[in-house]
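At this stage, I wrote out one protein, both as residues and as discrete backbone shape codes, and that material follows here.
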Amino acid sequence: MCRWLAYSGSPVLIEDLLYKPAHSLVDQSLHARLSGDTTNGDGFGLGWYGTGDGPGVYHCIEPAWNERNLRDLAAHTMSPLVFAHVRASTGTPVQETNCHPFRYGDWLWMHNGSIRSFAQVKRPLVVAVDPSLYPFIEGSTDSETLFYLALSFGLEEDPPTAVARAIGFVEAVGAAHGVANPMQGTIATTNGDQMWVFRYSSEHDSVSLFFSTKVETLRALYPGNPLFETVDPATRLVVSEPLGDLPGAWQAVPESSYGIVGGGEDSLHPFTPVSPETSVYAVR
């Protein structure tokens, strides 16, 4: 499985997220602790919001630990909202168009996990993508297909409901094709103002996901720590696995739940997929 991080808060030098923590995302690309795959070397991706319109993205098929351009980019780029992902392929090719995060308009999306037996169910899933969105699918991953299903189900208007409908559709298609427990994973998506994160699997045994403790609590736990003194109280990190071993700094995202960060909101909610109801998205 892959590893990812999502950051929202005070503008940060991307290098501080990717390289400086004791168990940084780049370290996780070689030495993941909470994943079935210790090494995540099938490419990486970076997405961030800056001064231009919409998000910037950088993808590369080289391992994150061995890509000098990433280090240089990270050392000279600041952003208040960053997505980063190191990939362990679940079967699709190692190519730039298969690297996360995926982008559509103002939106970014990344996923750790899989749609099981994707080759078997790919056709009905792709057919359900809105025809106006289909031409924007560039790669061949289950993760990108899931993104465009969520967009088709209204991601830009209501992200939690759209993701619930997309995953519900995946489960319905899986059931129709005899695929047990078709959905596994964690998801992060953002429009640049807020970000939404999800932890869900059909068997209710999802891959790991953690969020950082509130800054006010960390200041009380670690008085005098310059990092906690300088960041905005609304700053949050959501990660596949903790970036260090600081006691009290990380909380597990509950199974079958989603969180909202940014825009004045910081909350966790139960997550339940929504089964398809209309013949427009008939399961075939």
